[in-house]
Amino acid sequence: MALPEKDSAPQMRYGVHIRAMMKIRTYLSTSTALLAGLLALCSPASAAKEKEELPLTARGKELLGKYTKELETLRAEVVAALPPVDAAKKTRFLEVRAKWNGIANANDETPPAERKAQDELREQTQSEAIDAAGVLLADLAPVLSSNALDPKLMRIAILNHGTPRGLAEFAQQGSDEENLLEKLFADEPLMRQILEAGGANGGEYGEAMQVYAAILKASERAREVGSIFQRLALGTSIHMPWLQAETKAVMLDADAEAGADAPKLPLQDKKKGGVYGIVYRTETGVAQVPRYLHYEKAFLDSELDPAFKDMNTWECRFITDSEYSNEDLAWTRQMMRNYRPDHITTKDTHWRYVRFIKSDVPYCSTTNDPSLGTRAQMEIALGGICGRRAFLGRLTSRAFGIPSRASTQTGHGAMSHWSPNGWVICLGAWWSAAWCGPQSGLDFLLDSQAREFEPEYQQVRRAQWLGDALGEEKVSIGPGKLGKGGGFWDGLAFLNKQIIVKKAEVKALELAGGMKLGESDELLGDEQGEDIEIPDADKEIKVAGDGTITLPAVACYSPRKSSDRILFLKSWDTGYQLHYSRLGQRPELFKYNIDVPADGEYELTSMAATVSPNIEVLVRVNRDEPVPFAMPYTKGFWESSKPLKLKLTQGRNIISVTARTPNRGVSIKNWQLKPLK
What we know:
- By secondary structure, the chain is α+β, with helices and mostly antiparallel strands.
- The chain has four domains: about 30-45 and about 175-315, no CATH class; about 60-160 and about 450-500, no CATH class; about 320-430 and about 510-525, C8orf32 fold; about 535-675, Galactose-binding domain-like (Jelly Rolls), CATH 2.60.120.260.
- It has 22 helices and 17 strands.
- Strand 12 and strand 13 form a beta hairpin.
- The radius of gyration is 29 Å and the shape is elongated.
- The chain starts with 17 loop residues before the first helix and ends with a strand.
């Protein structure tokens, strides 16, 4: 079975309703010309970053002076080259922005009348700000549409984000480290690709270049400029740069198998805050080079979603940073191909892959039992509360090459992922209740939408870069203060994103499930499986020379169509399978007619796939009492069960199967009845 083709219809992203943004009272807190010389500079450095600021060596102090002077010089040159801004229009814009900044957020104790007045003021002020920004943007279109200042602006953006001190701390470690930064600053296409993808996490441009160099050394394909391999290599590098000295060599070593399962690295707080909304810390201690190589191989083996090949560098950075091991990623793909192929091929891209969490990861107390297998196998087998389910939702998305992020909500864990129709929240409430790292959910949604219109979004970037050049404060993108503060240019950039989305008339999709799905096992009413036509050949009952009867699981005479409990699925490889779901309104029977030549005993076995231990179904022959039949714990692989002895009578026999509620799901490929002599 092939993976679903990427939607060919025009991509319509989720809309950020400006009115909705204004009415949110409280936000919940918390390429390029590749460098040939880069390949020779991939040896990891040995100095640990144990303090917020490392002591500078003599060379470090020289480098600090160099980077500081360069930043000051570039800023002066950019300021001198800027055309004048209409004073009256700028004053009007800043007045409206000040008015916006002064609007207080309502809280639970705010009287209804006051809350209404604040909402109306917020709506009016937002409209005034968009109008004032639109007038200025029309005047400034020549400078914002031109790339003449880009070489200087990009260097300023990196120097400003990485800080002269932070870059000096990295470069003082040795000539290799210093040369990595010099090569970055000499490669304008690479700087552009990095900045267009959101910059290096935490401003760690040197560390990101180390990782990138190591990946390029390990993979010839990653050196193919502009390819998905190169975009993935760079996205991985700029999103996962932080390494401690004692583990850095292992993390960068493509041959270090232990690296993929290494424990989480201590998170560094140095230079908190991402560039324009990117997460300020990495949540994984996974080795970057083996992680990249894992995805390269999976793509070449046609194991990833068809959309993966078109992901840009910004999207790629949210694919490889899974906290699960490469083994878990590979297992997830294989398990779902065996156990629930329908969640891979579904046309519902809102829930593709993630729907597995709804169908097979129960909402229950979170427990641990390492004897059940790897981390992912154990967590799926046991289930858990919202946080674990959100982690697993990101796993199922990223395993197939779909970008995904944590989208935390008050007292609740949710997740979001890319879809052809825009980024979407799963297992939780809408974007207004979420935040992604330091970034509010609404800002991330707005940014992801505006990025779809690249020529217009490039003007957003240049306005942000100009804000860096003038040393302006950035507009807040965090919960509770979204859109407040910031200088002239960064404020203009923020409003321009809203204008881009509003002008494009991007429509918002409705949220399916929400918190109801995130914190319960309740049904949504759309669980019934798709009706499929099963060829007669795939339902044929076969009898071997020794009398063994092989009965396809889909050959039951009842039911004939899928329900919310019993689903008929097209198998990933060949043929069909039956899935008995853990969800559904009530237990159901599926029944078979079996003809046998004479009275006798038979051993019944099943070829089944399960993701949970201790699964038991009930098997009934004719009018006998139902007897328990143990399904093996297969960890999602196809395995034969232990036999159950049954007595069959000459002629037609009816075998019925069901399960008590509550139950866990099981997929069955076929049954076998072997006569006992």
